[in-house]
# Entry
Amino acid sequence: MRLEVTRRRFVELLTALTAGVGLRSKAQIRATRPASPGATVNRKNLVATQVKAYAWQDEGIDKLLDNLQQKGNINTVFAFTYLSEATDVSGHIPLPDHGTYSKANPEIGGAFYDYDLKYFQNTTLKDFHASSKFNVISEVAPKMKTRGMDFFAWDYNNTNANMMRLIPGFTEVAEIDVYGKRTDSACWNHPNYRAQLTGRIDSYLSGYPGEVDGIIWGCERMGPLDNMIGGGWATTGISCFCGYCRSKARERDISVERAQRGFIKLDGLFQAANRQQRPADGYFVAFWRILLEYPEVLAWHSLWNDSYHEVRSELYGTAKALAPKKPFGFHIVQNVTFSPFYSAVDDYAKIKEYSDFIKIASYNNAGGGRMAGFVSRLCSTIFADATPQDLLPLYYKIMNYDEKPFEEIDRKSVV
# Structure
């Protein structure tokens, strides 16, 4: 993994990732026929960056666009039109070049554009506008058009407790954990939530046909077993065990009760590891024994991940039915670069079947502090028999990496 890459070459490599694969979706919502494999029109030499809604108001639209074009040669902006995260709970934006836009009531997320309720007739989740009245699409897209730039709606769907609390009815679509408690995450199998997700795609492409040139959709969540192993972007709760997920499990002949017992046993094992209460045969043997005794654990984990693929495929199908020429791609959480477990389930071979491009979150700190944190977490769960220094050589072999000793990863990142 030791590569000498210039800044220009790095941009070229990232650009290459946006090349359209133009493959047909397996689940085409609202489509009367499959989208033509060659229908999508991708911009040649696309160079893009993502911009949050507050940045346009903080810096000013024209000034920000000047900087993007002059300093980055940017021709496409992934503009956040839906964001499930607060700007900052204190109202202060914790970035050195974004200090002027602060207030007593910070943005808590939601839709940063105006939408017609006709696109949300099949869901009760209709009131999800951000506290700001700033319309990113109508305010920014026209100015980008005059510069020959493309506007992509960035629909970002991370877990956030504030969103669960502030969007009316959102708690009704929450995942239910193995102990019967609601979590902060929405369930992929809840029809009410799915209808809202597809409604947003419709509202972009049908509501703003001349402004929106494409869509990028993202969510940084993982299935129950990945969450238990932990590391970055683990969400609260071993889930989902709601009625819809239970019904789907029974259709697959998965025992709900045995899956619950298996996850609860795993939870007990990992809690014992936190207390340094080593089983007689060691942590990994105990972990493997539970999986052998309760194969339903892996089956339930697969159910969650299959549902995630289904949702993304349906969103792609919706977009291709409405605007087959406009690119639709996906943001891939950075865990895919440092977790072999997450990489196995968020398989590029599956994603290519329902996407025109992907944007991998290959940030510098993913290969630094976040990777170090993940290795440390492994050594407090399934590999608690070992230290991070013990595990790292094997981990590098598994990931095909050739990197620094553990003590240097956090400080120097990867090269």
The radius of gyration is 22 Å. The first helix runs from residue 7 to 16.
